[in-house]
Design goal:
Layout: H1 5-14, E1 36-37, H2 42-47, E2 52-53, E3 56-61, H3 68-81, E4 86-90, H4 97-102, E5 110-114, H5 125-145, E6 150-154, H6 160-164, H7 169-178, E7 184-189, E8 200-208, E9 214-218, E10 231-232, E11 244-253, E12 262-269
Parallel strand pairs: 3-7, 3-8, 4-5, 4-6, 6-7
Antiparallel strand pairs: 1-2, 8-11, 9-10, 9-12, 11-12
Length: about 270
């Protein structure tokens, strides 16, 4: 039975798994069963088989400046536009709420579970490990609560040694928890962590500077880019310090899924919203 919102918030606070919780979480009406959580971009969703699979644990991985956070905000915005609740378990308190709002994320439908601020993650091994373990416990509680369309565990800024020390069974356990639900569970990290789970892996890598608000190109059979397939997403990000970048997104399917791996190119640029 899903936990009531008050029970969920009480558990998170009692176990000290969060420093700040949003409070304006509206109820969610029962929904018809759907297989995927679309990103609201037809080209990207075509490569994802319609969107992120519901009832499965997927992941978006890439280095800094690879577009992983921008893609996370795109997915969250699409979910809140559908009237769904979104939860982001932010292990190292890295989420920029102003960027989320600028990316059309409805903050009244967002549960932001903030982790600990680690000033220098690369030098704080014990603190990193504790922060990751607490974030995973919070992620588990949110999945148990139910009623969320998208639940994200963001460990993108965590050092790789800390992530590698986590038991591999962690991801299998989380996959079992989300199976049979209408929640799309998502890991965001620097490298693939849960490839053997039932979801998919979307691996991002920077390709240089680009132009346009947001765009997407589907790769040809030989990996070449098809310039005629560019489509606008029209997302605006203000007060940025860079002109833009191209990101190659490689869709890696789990073994259980039938579709072959493919790749797309996402292009983004900063726009002064003032």
């Amino acid at each position: 039975m899903p936990l009531a919102r008050a029970d969920l918030e009480s558990l998170l606070r009692t176990r000290r798994l969060d420093r700040t919780l949003t409070t304006a979480l509206p109820g969610v009406d029962p929904r018809d069963e759907t297989a995927v959580a679309p990103s609201a971009h037809a080209g990207l969703d075509a490569h994802l088989g319609g969107g992120l699979p519901r009832g499965q644990l997927s992941e978006v991985v890439g280095a800094r400046s690879s577009g992983r956070t921008s893609l996370l905000l795109q997915l969250a915005a699409a979910a809140t536009r559908r009237g769904e609740l979104v939860a982001v378990v932010d292990a190292l308190d890295a989420l920029d709420v102003e960027s989320a709002a600028a990316g059309d994320v409805d903050l009244t439908r967002l549960l932001w579970v903030r982790g600990h601020v680690v000033t220098n993650p690369g030098l704080c091994g014990d603190l990193n490990q504790r922060a990751l373990e607490q974030a995973i416990r919070a992620f588990t509680l949110v999945l148990q609560a139910g009623n969320f369309g998208l639940v994200v565990l963001d460990v993108a800024e965590a050092p790789l040694p800390a992530l590698r020390r986590l038991p591999f069974t962690t991801w299998l356990r989380l996959q079992r928890m989300v199976e049979g639900t209408q929640t799309a569970a998502l890991l965001v990290g620097p490298q693939p962590m849960a490839r053997s789970s039932a979801g998919l892996t979307l691996q991002l890598g920077a390709r240089g500077l680009g132009v346009g608000d947001w765009g997407l190109e589907r790769s040809g059979n030989g990996g070449s880019r098809n310039n005629g397939s560019m489509e606008r997403l029209g997302i605006r990000f203000g007060h940025s310090l860079f002109d833009g970048l191209n990101v190659e997104a490689r869709v890696v399917r789990a073994r259980a899924r039938e579709r072959e791996a493919g790749s797309v190119t996402l292009s983004t640029c900063a726009i002064d919203c003032a």
